[in-house]
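Batch job 17 of 40 flagged for manual review because the log was empty.
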Amino acid sequence: MKKDNFLKGAFIATICLVITKILGILYVIPFYSIIGEKGSILYGCAYNIYAVFVNLSTVGLPLAISKLVSEYNTLKYYNLKQCSYKLASRIMLITAIVSTILLFVFAPNLAKYIIPDNNYGNTIADITLVIRVSATAIIFVTLISMIRGYMQGMKYIKASSISQVIEQLVRVLIIVLGSLIYLKLIGKNVSIAVSIAVFGATAGAIFALFYLLFKRKQIPKDNLKEIKEEEKQVSNKQLIKKIIGYTIPFVVMGFIGSSFELVDMFTVVRTLTSHGYNTETAAIIMNIVTTLGSKLNVIITAVASGIVISLLPNLTSDFVKKNYTEVKNKINRTLQIVIYITIPMAVGLSLLAKPVWTIFYGNSEYGPKVFMFSIFIAVFNCISSNIMIIMQSVNRYKGLFTGLILGFLFNAITNIPFMNLFYDLGLPIYYGNLFATMLGYIIMISISMYDLKKVFKVSYKETFKQFLITIISVLAMSIAILALKQVLPFETRSRLTAILVVIICTIVGALIYFIITYKTKSFDKIIGKGLFKRKKVN
């Protein structure tokens, strides 16, 4: 295998990321029609809990492995590199085994907390089964995360990224074909069909693992016979301390990020039922908020992540060089890019909520109503994710943790009160928890931005200026889409018609937005100059 330079690696990683996200969105169209709302709720219950336990096992440590491997490989401390990789891998395997056991043993308890009774069709036994099946994936996902971290540290980005596509492709095929074949040819038990779909994560990880093991054999062997004096002075205890130090920020980020959805899972159904909704309707709304809507939000987060992936790694380099002018420039550039991309996409998807929802999930009473508001969470999620990466790049861990914890606590404490408030005001009660989530993200973002301003004297004047131009451009775009709404069949139940409506509105809206931002030089300032410009070689 050949090592990938930064630009090539970033490009490959971005393309593979977009492919995996697209696959992750498209499969819901046939899958939802196959298993229906009952099965979709069951799948969402298992997946969201599984995601938290996978985060406990993998988030942070693969990145710590990548950082350690890259650091020691650059210094040619090959023995330390191998030693740190083995130690980190052992830690990951232990956490994976513990997470698997905990998820398997406490599945019935978790099931009881998610849904208080079985009025909506799924029993506690059904939820317990799919949660336990999801637990089988944790160890395999952990193994591939370890190897990916090692390969990324060694700059073999292509193999690592392709393995993600393989994992997702196998997972999607089993989700769709497995559930379809079972329900059409074998049996009618929806919980079994969902269990087969959930097992897709395990099968995908196994296929990706075989691919990575094959590719890893092609990596040239290190010369481990020559041990440098500096390597001898580093003990296993010091390595473990360093691994943990690199890992903790990523673990906290991943756990709190997943916990936002868990807060909804444990509060939405109970609060809705206390205000007159039957349990089945409450469970449907909860599933829209935590699972179905989140999958569509990926449309925004994937694109934003792909744009900034070549910018953020350079921030660490500038910080190490103490080039604080560039640090401040790149902080603002990152915010401007995310705002420029995500806000028009969120507004457009919100205005097109009905036809977009019809394309992916068919007709739904609550789906478009919830999605038209929940899509804006993706904007705050993108901004907060990039701010958190920036904070880690410049070693501002205190501000990072403060923002994360206070933002999460605010969401957890105010989720139910806001739902009650919205009910008292005559507004849809399910908007209350979404509003609490957005405010939680705003608190996280504000604290981090204030910390950066205080420490690095970052001025956000230019970013605010570009934000205003973006808002004006989005308003013009929105007027055009609302005008089209008067002549196009937005309320159609036909998927084909809905696709045509979305395509027409997207083309018109995107053209208007681009023309205005181009004429005002906003596009040129944010994206057109310098971001992807190649450096001249003397």
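Reviewer: the log was empty due to a logging misconfiguration, but the result itself is present. Residues 309-313, 530-538 have pLDDT under 50 and may be disordered. Unflagging and moving on to job 18.
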